[in-house]
Amino acid sequence: MMRLIQHDLKSNMTVRKKVGFIMYAKINDIQLYYQIYGQGEPLLMMHGNGQDHQDLERMISYFAKSYQVIVPDTRAHGRSEVGNVPLDYELLADDMLALLDFLAISSYHVVGYSDGGIIALIMGIKQPDRQLNGAVIGANYNIEQIRSFSNLICQMGYYLCRVLAGVSSFFKKYRERLRLMAFYPRIKRLDLAKIKAPFLTIIGERDLFISIEETRKMTTALTKGTMKVVKGGTHFLPMQNPQILNRLIDQFLNRKGVQACSR
After folding, report:
1. pTM value?
2. pLDDT tens, 160-185?
3. Which one, of 128, 134, 92, 136, lies nearest residue 109 by Cα?
């Protein structure tokens, strides 16, 4: 069972409320849910689209042995509110930076899966001096990197939810999530060079959303990028084989290095 460490922090910008183990912070225009596990240097860990922090449980329990792991439910996911403004990755990154401000964290490690990886990249572009190092899993920096068939499915889902959004808040939430997947992100490749921290990019050999070549393109655009291809891996590596991810990321965060671009 993972140990939850709760810290009594004060902030002028927002107020936190606790209900048992449920922890919220008033971030921008929403109540953002988060948890903190373990002790050590701060490690922000972010889930993918349509998930919440519990989907990373086996990664959280591993890294909580050595780090203070901060795991939010990003806006419109899990127990966090949707808000009243259109969802985009810039907004999600601003939420995460505000959460770190709220927790009085000046520098941090970061691990992001899929959409969480996109958020991690934007955070590094916005505030490059705060990131110590990081890892992204199955992430892309531009919508054009997504395989055509996968993108078509996301667009179809988005337009369906847009029609049904007036019927239920359930479809409103999914409309916002699918809009992200169907039309974003739109990070410029040159902007990736603004990220100062070393980054490990991980891609599954059989990822149906993003190709190895597109991941390599992203890695080479980073100032200090290292790439790892997981043999037999799919887009869903944190659920499929968290043991491999934990080992690769742990080695990288501890500056032990991993074999770059291996198959």
Report:
1. 0.86
2. 988 998 888 888 888 888 888 888 99
3. 134
The pair phi, psi for residue 22, each rounded to 5°, is -85, 125
SS3 state at 255: coil
| Cross-strand partners of 25 | 16, 32
Calculate ∠ Cα 53-186-84, nearest 5°: 55
In a domain, 188, yes or no: yes
Q: How far apart are the first and last CA of the chain?
A: 34
Hey, what's the torsion of the CAs at 124, 125, 126, 129, to 10 degrees? Answer: 50
Residue, of 154 and 37, whose pLDDT is higher: 37
- The domain that contains 234 carries what CATH number? 3.40.50.1820
CA distance 180 to 176: 7
Neighbouring C-alpha atoms within 13 Å toward the C-beta of 224: 15
